[in-house]
């Protein structure tokens, strides 16, 4: 799960209201992709030039392409974004349908908007889709942040000690086609309780990260 969390709080008290739009990928216009590409480059760029590179050429996705997006807008344009993609992953020996969440970003001047708002917008959408779980991966450095915003509010459970294997989004002659990452797994119980999440120390995406 690509996540950007800004430490800036400037201008929060004077910001304009955020309007959320939930849209299927086929409903996006060219202008939408151009606007989102610019948003991601500006949002991910401060974390490293490599992180902004996938969004060059008006591309509005990094690895796997989402099928559904929740996009927050304010008077300045795109304020926040989170994408979702239904897919089967393998947890240990169990094939499991999930909605993977990714492409999360908040414009640097809107730290107060927070990941909680994005998740609350996406949650009822996932319920309508009938998926048993929401799923995402995050860096260990964000554990305390996400525990405070999501786990303690009962929106998600954070699982550690799991390796996630994914395919690379492109073919590179000097790199293997898959990579294995030691990350935290974020699980949102949607149609089934967290007690029914399979046990396993390896999760196979069988595709690129969202």
Automatic annotation (TrEMBL):
GO terms for molecular function: acyltransferase activity. It is found in: Cytoplasm. Its EC number is 2.3.1.-. The keyword Cytoplasm applies. It holds the Pfam family NodA. One of its GO terms (cellular component) is cytosol. Keywords: Acyltransferase, Cytoplasm, Nodulation, Transferase. It comes from the Bacteria. The keyword Transferase applies. Belongs to the NodA family. N-acyltransferase required for nodulation. Acts in the production of a small, heat-stable compound (Nod) that stimulates mitosis in various plant protoplasts. This is Nodulation protein A. It comes from Bradyrhizobium retamae. The gene is nodA.
């Amino acid at each position: 799960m690509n996540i950007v969390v800004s430490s800036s709080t400037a201008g929060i008290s004077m910001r304009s209201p955020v309007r959320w739009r939930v849209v299927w990928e086929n409903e996006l216009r060219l202008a939408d992709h151009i606007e989102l590409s610019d948003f991601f480059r500006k949002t991910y760029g401060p974390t490293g030039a490599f992180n902004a590179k996938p969004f060059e050429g008006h591309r509005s996705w990094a690895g796997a392409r989402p099928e559904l997006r929740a996009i927050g807008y304010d008077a300045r344009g795109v304020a926040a974004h989170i994408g979702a993609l239904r897919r089967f992953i393998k947890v240990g020996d169990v094939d499991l349908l999930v909605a993977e969440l990714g492409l999360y970003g908040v414009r640097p001047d809107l730290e107060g908007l927070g990941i909680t708002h994005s998740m609350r917008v996406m949650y009822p959408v996932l319920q309508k889709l009938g998926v048993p779980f929401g799923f995402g991966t995050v860096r260990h450095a964000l554990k305390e942040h996400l525990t405070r915003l999501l786990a303690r509010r009962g929106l998600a459970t954070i699982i550690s000690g799991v390796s996630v294997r994914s395919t690379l989004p492109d073919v590179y002659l000097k790199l293997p086609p898959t990579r294995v990452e030691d990350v935290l797994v974020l699980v949102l119980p949607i149609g089934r309780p967290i007690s029914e999440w399979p046990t396993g120390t390896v999760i196979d995406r069988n595709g690129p990260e969202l």
